[in-house]
Write a structure and sequence with these properties.
- It is built from 2 helices and 5 strands.
- The chain is globular, with a radius of gyration of 11 Å.
- The protein has one domain: TusA-like domain (Translation Initiation Factor IF3, 2-Layer Sandwich), CATH 3.30.110.
- By secondary structure, the protein is α+β, with helices and mostly antiparallel strands.
- The N and C termini lie far apart (25 Å).
Length: 81
């Protein structure tokens, strides 16, 4: 399974998947989550950088932080409403 729920924290591991799958998996994980839920997305596709930013602008989400280490991009997203 690509998402795990522990209270209001989600982890979406999409390493090895290409656009648009990382954002689609993030959207699916957040769909049923309540407002205030945090999702941590892991991706290896560089396109995820722009895709996640666009996703957050178009949805009720806010990108809290992002980074890259050893080819793995990490995003922390909060669902606002």
């Amino acid at each position: 399974m690509d998402a795990t729920v522990a209270g209001k924290k989600l982890e979406v591991d999409t390493r090895g998947l290409l656009c648009p799958l990382p954002v689609l998996r993030l959207a699916r994980a957040l769909r049923a989550a309540p407002a205030g839920s945090l999702a941590r997305l892991l991706a290896t596709d560089p396109a995820a950088v722009e895709d996640v930013a666009t996703f957050c602008r178009e949805r009720s989400c806010r990108l809290l932080e992002s980074g890259e280490s050893e080819g793995v991009y990490t995003f922390l997203v909060v669902k606002e409403a």
